[in-house]
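ok trying this again, last paste got cut off
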Amino acid sequence: MSDHHDLDATSADQKRVLLQVLGLNVGLSALLLAGGLLADSSGLLANALDNGSDALTYAISYLAVTRTAIWKARAARITAVMLLVLAVGV
């Protein structure tokens, strides 16, 4: 049998990756927003909004990584509500 501990990431590893992905999403969202405004493109603006919501989800996840299970469940609920709001808005 294989050892499953090799696949387990530490909280520090998870926070590092989430911070990197958060930075990438914020940067991409800003570029898409600027491009959408300059090109008067609703498609780029919608994509910027999507990346912005992803960034917010990663920020919430970043805060939840080292917290208790209750905090993680609340963070998951918040992100689910955000997705529903965006889906209804579209």
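PB: full thing came through this time. The chain has a mean pLDDT of 86.
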